[in-house]
Amino acid sequence: MRLYESKTPVQRTEKNGPFNAWLYCKGKIHLWTATWVLLNICLSIYFVLKYKNSPDFTNTRALFGWSFIVARSAAGMIHVCTIFNLLPLCKVILTKLRNTFLGKILPFDSGISFHKLVGIETVFFSLLHTFAHYFNYYKAYKVLNPGKSIFYVLLVSGPSWTGHIMLVCLFLIMIPALDFYRRKNYNTFWYLHQSFFIYFFMFSIHGSFCLIKAPSPPYCRPHSSFWKYYFFSGILYVLELVLREFSSKNQKNTITKVILHPSQVIEIQMQKNAIGSYKPGQYVLINVPIVSVTEWHPFTLTSSPQEDFLSIHVRIVGDWTKKLSKVLGAHNLDLEIPENIPMPLDSHNSHFSRSSFSSKRKSRYLDISNVALPDLHVNGPIGSPAQDFSQFNTVVLIAGGIGVTPFASILKSLWFQFRFTPSVTPKPRKVYFIWSLKDTTASEWFQYLLMAIEEEDHNPPLGRGSFENIPLSEKAIDISIYITKKFQTKEINNLVLHSHNINSDTITNLRSQTFYGRPNFPTIFSNISRNHPDETIGVFFCGPKIMGKTIESSAYEITVDNAFKARFKYHEEFF
Length: 575
Fold this sequence. Notes:
Layout: H1 17-25, H2 27-53, H3 58-64, H4 66-85, H5 91-98, H6 111-144, H7 150-156, H8 158-174, H9 179-182, H10 186-193, H11 196-205, H12 231-250, E1 255-261, E2 265-271, E3 283-287, E4 297-300, E5 309-315, H13 319-327, H14 333-336, H15 354-360, E6 364-365, E7 377-382, E8 394-400, H16 406-420, E9 430-437, H17 444-458, E10 477-483, H18 489-497, E11 514-516, H19 521-531, E12 536-542, H20 545-560, E13 567-573
Parallel strand pairs: 8-9, 8-12, 9-10, 10-11, 12-13
Antiparallel strand pairs: 1-2, 1-6, 2-5, 3-4, 3-7
């Protein structure tokens, strides 16, 4: 593969082996996962032994038996989950912490995964708690014979109706959060997720009805103490919400430019004072009150810290983004950048030419001089896995389709470093950028960025030599594009017919080599390991989960079995 050719280094026979590879690639997250599982097992055993042997519950155990022990033990585990559930949502606070020594210890990148895990556990133990109490209610009904139906007892007693409301809230929170539903119905997911406020209110009063009395005075507590389990994390979460609202609404964020890119992508540029300093790869939360007062949406910063403005790219795909495009002045979005313009490989396009294609698909500045631009509230920056790229001397940036967005700021920042601070040793010193996409229509704006980087490299500073003449092994940024679309015979013939420009690719207009088919990641990583022996290489991916699993598996396999002791450390985020 031409992109990764280089001088062959000294041959090595030692390998990392499975344990060292596991430690480098997956060690931290697996160790913390094992710690959490072990904590759950130990606490479950503790609660079972407590409610099985404690003299405080002798009479209750005699009446209900094991169903009481199961119900109370499950309740104890719900309390444990409640302690941790809100912590991963304090994103700004966690961003501050990940910039300290804790960033090397705690897996901050897996915060949302941990939140989901705790949520699943909460639902599981809640169901276990509920069904165990169904048995308890039935036994109590038979023994005490209250003279009312079992359904009345189940629904009217304080712990029962609060518990059922909590259970309904949990399902309203969990089901829309499933990936297949959330991606297509984000607004529904977001609004139903807010029912956690009702859940925590019911949780706070759930234990205040004194259904099960202690054997000795005082038989009942005057109030529930369940609030203490979420007090700390709740304070942090509410504090972050208050600070977000206060800081964003007191900081005027002025929009300076609105650029309409092909394929219905809008770039919003704003003054840099919208947030403080930030790192390439981080993202912000955006709120536009005229569109929705309550909704905050995450957008990756596509500007680099070296630029004098902030920018985000918004793809117009949903109700919120469509409303946003209209208040920004793009009323006739489909007419501004037509979606039905034939692409170069369209065999029915008899008027194919590169110039006509380029002119029709160019980005355009929108005239905002006569537009009453909306207030834009910005909260952040918020940390992401991609921001850690600067910890490595060599990085591999891999994007799948529209997952390319997090790498815009990184590539811009690296270009600024390489071009304007050549006396400072950059980190990373070598970047392999790999972009796999079905076709080029969804992310044409990013192609323009790559073309700009190549154009600047074509006129290099300090006599480094032209883009074409620099040996590939010495380039700071190697770009590789993979088109995975299956072409028809006529399209292939059309491609060959118009491949007259040897300096750039017919489809992408880039000088970098374009491959047709899916990337062979084991081969890619193997060749990179040959170029960078005895080195820990950062692999950063954003794209579909299935593709991420393939990349992670390949990185691990090559780390285990390469003769150059190169180690690939995998990071991922999903769009």
